[in-house]
Amino acid sequence: MGAIGGFIALNVVEKNDAGVFPIVVHGSEFQLEQGGEFEQNEQGEWLGMTLHIAYFSEFDLMLHVQTKGREVVHYQFGARLKSPEILRVDVVQDNLDTSGLLPRGI
């Protein structure tokens, strides 16, 4: 797996109006080697992937990626909530550079 540059800013929203906590995660902190789910066609071209990119005690941050050839054509964030106190995780700023996500050797 390659690398992602830039950063993503999140707001972690707690239930019952308990608070909103901002978090900034830089691309260099993403844990791409931790695994995910990958889709390829019969010719071995990448179609898409779901990557586990950051781990927190309250949630895991996921990146869902669609590719065409060697380019990322669309991506979307998701969160796997692990704490019953968390209502949701919102993306408030996305400044990612996904151009290095698929290394040339793939």
Draw up the topology in text.
Elements: E1 5-14, E2 20-26, E3 36-40, E4 46-55, E5 59-68, E6 71-81, E7 86-97
Antiparallel strand pairs: 1-2, 1-7, 3-4, 4-5, 5-6
3D architecture notes:
The protein is built from no helices and 7 strands. It has strands at 5-14, 20-26, 36-40, 46-55, 59-68, 71-81, 86-97. Strands 3-4-5-6 form a 4-stranded antiparallel β-sheet, with no helix packed on it. A hairpin with a 5-residue loop joins strand 3 (36-40) and strand 4. It is elongated, with a radius of gyration of 15 Å. It starts with a strand and ends in a 9-residue tail after the last strand.
What is the averaged pLDDT score? 84
Widest sheet: strand ordering: 3-4-5-6
Strand fraction equals: over 45%
Share of helical residues: under 10%
Number of strands: 7
Helix/strand structural class: mainly beta
Q: What is the makeup of the main sheet?
A: 4 strands, antiparallel
Gross morphology: elongated
How far the N terminus sits from the C terminus, by CA atoms, comes to 8 Å
Summarize this, please?
The chain is mainly beta. The protein has strands spanning 5-14, 20-26, 36-40, 46-55, 59-68, 71-81, 86-97.
Task: Provide key terms for this protein.
106 residues; mainly beta; 4-stranded antiparallel β-sheet; 3-stranded antiparallel β-sheet; 61% strand
